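$ ./design --mode recover --in tokens.txt
reading tokens...
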């Protein structure tokens, strides 16, 4: 075999090896993408009207190849204004996160969705006719990102303990923050601890604040992520919610059981209540 023929043979073999390596890398990447897809959330949701005449809680969930997003809104208002505000908020988030590009910059996308919801509510309703508390979570590659406005809570259940990750925008929470910053005396702060009135929500000209995650929460598998309106967490005992999560069944079954805690409660004048339950396996 001449030297040129040897070189040609070597180049041919090298090309074949490179082709095989490229194919194997594509297979690995495909499996990796498929693996992320298989790790997507199981989900469930439920709500009850309570003793109210109108159901003003709305929720929505969407999933792309980049991750999963869930949103829960608690509307407030007159003449169906709260229902419209909640539904508008949820639809705004769903429209935003149906585009997988929204998952690349969670804080930017959350902020854009909140401000978009605020703007749409103001466009649809007259002043003070309707508004909403809203919280949303995004799960991407075993990381939990969250943001909220108002008093819808996001919480994570792991190691048999349900831990809230949002504080909320109520007067009592604000008083505690101002006391810790040294802007309120202890006596002034204590006098406001029983005030649960909202000071921030979507559907107002003065809307500004969004409570964001400091750093994303790592999910190791098996945890539950919950979104809850105040009609749930102010009526049902926290321990009873944890017990429902500890029992067997799907996320949907757990959501039904959690809402049934409100339906069975003897408390008078029960508010609307809603829950979204997500789990990474």
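writing sequence...
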């Amino acid at each position: 075999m001449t030297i040129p023929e040897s070189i040609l043979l070597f180049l041919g073999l090298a090309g074949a090896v490179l082709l095989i390596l490229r194919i194997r890398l594509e297979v690995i990447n495909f499996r990796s993408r498929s693996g992320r897809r298989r790790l997507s959330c199981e989900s469930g949701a439920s709500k009850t009207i309570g003793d109210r005449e109108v159901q003003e809680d709305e929720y929505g969930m969407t999933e792309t190849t980049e991750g999963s997003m869930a949103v829960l809104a608690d509307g407030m208002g007159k003449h169906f204004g709260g229902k419209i505000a909640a539904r508008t908020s949820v639809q705004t988030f769903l429209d935003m996160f149906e585009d997988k590009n929204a998952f690349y910059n969670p804080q930017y996308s959350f902020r854009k969705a909140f401000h978009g919801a605020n703007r749409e509510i103001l466009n649809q309703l007259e002043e003070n006719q309707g508004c909403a508390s809203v919280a949303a979570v995004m799960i991407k590659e075993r990381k939990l990102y969250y943001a909220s406005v108002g008093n819808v809570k996001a919480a994570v259940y792991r190691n048999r303990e349900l831990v809230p990750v949002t504080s909320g925008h109520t007067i009592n929470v604000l008083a505690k923050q101002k006391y810790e910053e040294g802007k309120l005396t202890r006596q002034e702060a204590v006098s406001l601890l029983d005030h649960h009135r909202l000071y921030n929500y979507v559907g107002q000209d003065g809307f500004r604040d969004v409570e964001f995650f400091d750093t994303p929460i790592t999910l190791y598998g098996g945890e539950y992520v919950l979104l809850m309106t105040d009609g749930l967490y102010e009526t049902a005992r926290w321990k009873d919610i944890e017990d429902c999560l500890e029992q067997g069944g799907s996320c949907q079954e757990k959501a039904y059981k959690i809402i049934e805690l409100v339906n069975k409660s003897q408390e008078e004048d029960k508010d609307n209540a809603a829950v979204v339950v997500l789990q990474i396996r």
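exit 0
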